[in-house]
Amino acid sequence: MKAVAMIPARYEASRFPGKLMKDLAGKSVILRTYEATKQSNLFDEVYVVTDSDIIYNEIISNSGKAIKSKKEHESGSDRIAEAIENLEVDIVVNVQGDEPFTQTEPLQKLLQVFKNDLAKKVDVASLMFKMNDLEEINNPNNVKVVCDEHNFAMYFSRAPIPFPRDKTKANYFKHIGIYAFTKQALLKFTTLPINQLEAAEKLENLRFLANGLKVKMVETSKVAIGIDTPEDLEKANAIYKEMNKFKKP
């Protein structure tokens, strides 16, 4: 089973323009993410896929591998699909470019799903994290997922699902946006039109479910730290500074 990691990377970002090229402990955010993914030793290849000459040159000049997008794309999944169309690969993992603390264990769990899927029932695998804080559960920025008895996703929503009508205790899981696809599923996804559910919730993962693609959810306790704001970058720099205290000179 040949697995590759793809890191879609746009230079522009509405909340924090140019964030992937911001300095994080002496290296850019995107280079930190690329190196963390490489260091997992889980993939046959790791690529950054970008429409930006600045990001492309950043990776190439640091002995990394990057692919320049030829077309404009609405989503990271579409960008990755263009990049892998002519590659010989079985499993494609979409790693977020703004998560420089990418960890090995969650990625390993995603790949294991496909190794165990002897009946070839899984099209997509993704991660979820159990939430207990009511404010977090009600926050529409946290996407929730409900699953069947075999941990296949039944629905994703920004609303707090399930709704505890009789005030009984319910379990809530936050969807973490790291995906692993079969190559066939990813290429199929990009040919499908946006459906009513996706348009309403602004969640592309609902396109999988509306078209019969099976999404296997994997629970993890490892939550990646994303960089969406200048404040997030400050926190990330503080974390690196703390980590380096324990390294030998």
TrEMBL record:
<dbReference type="GO" id="GO:0008690">
    <property type="term" value="F:3-deoxy-manno-octulosonate cytidylyltransferase activity"/>
</dbReference>
<dbReference type="Pfam" id="PF02348">
    <property type="entry name" value="CTP_transf_3"/>
</dbReference>
<keyword id="KW-0548">Nucleotidyltransferase</keyword>
<comment type="similarity">
    <text>Belongs to the KdsB family.</text>
</comment>
<protein>
    <recommendedName>
        <fullName>3-deoxy-manno-octulosonate cytidylyltransferase</fullName>
        <ecNumber>2.7.7.38</ecNumber>
    </recommendedName>
</protein>
<comment type="function">
    <text>Activates KDO (a required 8-carbon sugar) for incorporation into bacterial lipopolysaccharide in Gram-negative bacteria.</text>
</comment>
<dbReference type="InterPro" id="IPR029044">
    <property type="entry name" value="Nucleotide-diphossugar_trans"/>
</dbReference>
<comment type="pathway">
    <text>Nucleotide-sugar biosynthesis; CMP-3-deoxy-D-manno-octulosonate biosynthesis; CMP-3-deoxy-D-manno-octulosonate from 3-deoxy-D-manno-octulosonate and CTP: step 1/1.</text>
</comment>
<dbReference type="InterPro" id="IPR003329">
    <property type="entry name" value="Cytidylyl_trans"/>
</dbReference>
<dbReference type="InterPro" id="IPR004528">
    <property type="entry name" value="KdsB"/>
</dbReference>
<keyword id="KW-0448">Lipopolysaccharide biosynthesis</keyword>
<keyword id="KW-0808">Transferase</keyword>
<keyword id="KW-0963">Cytoplasm</keyword>
